[in-house]
Amino acid sequence: MEIWINPACSKCRGALTILDAEGAEYTVRRYLDDVPSEDEIRDVLGRLGLEPWDITRTQEADAKELGLKEWPRDATARDRWITALATHPKLIQRPIITADDGTAVVARTEDAVRGTLPN
Questions:
Q1: Which Gene3D superfamilies does the record match to this protein (predicted)?
Q2: Distance from C-alpha of 64 to C-alpha of 2, rounded to nearest angstrom
Q3: Mind giving me the DSSP string for 5-56?
Q4: Which of 13, 19, 56, 80, CA to CA, is 20 to 30 A from 64?
């Protein structure tokens, strides 16, 4: 599995603590340094079963500067949102875990993190 993190984020650090305590094998991706491409974001969205606006941090300064709250949230604007996430990775909700079984989760809670672990 892979986990997209921002090391400054307490939710990310908490997720890593849980994964380590459970002995999980994972790869860390510091997505602010290793920015996901638009195709990678599309793939993760498909795995999450979410739309780009569902994983966008709309309170970030970049979001306010772009006026994201005013953007349409429909199929016609989907690519525009994905481009914004790839261009401004701080806008991506975190942490995101992509599991080996093809699923993914925005792992902001302990239960969400544990749900990615093999039974």
A1: Glutaredoxin
A2: 29
A3: E-TT-HHHHHHHHHHHHTT---EEEETTTSPPPHHHHHHHHHHHT--GGGGB
A4: 13
Structure confidence at residue 100 as a pLDDT band (50, 70, 90): confident
Span 15-74, pLDDT tens digits:
999 999 999 999 999 999 999 999 999 999 999 999 999 999 999 999 999 999 999 999
- Which of 9, 22, 64, 109 is labelled catalytic? 9
Asked if residue 49 and residue 75 are part of one domain, the reply reads: yes
3-state secondary structure of 60: coil
Residue 116, amino acid: T
Q: How many domains does the chain fold into?
A: 2
Range of the domain at 10: 1-31+94-119
Specify whether 98 is located in the same domain as 69: no
HSE, CB side, 13 Å, CA atoms: give it for residue 64.
3
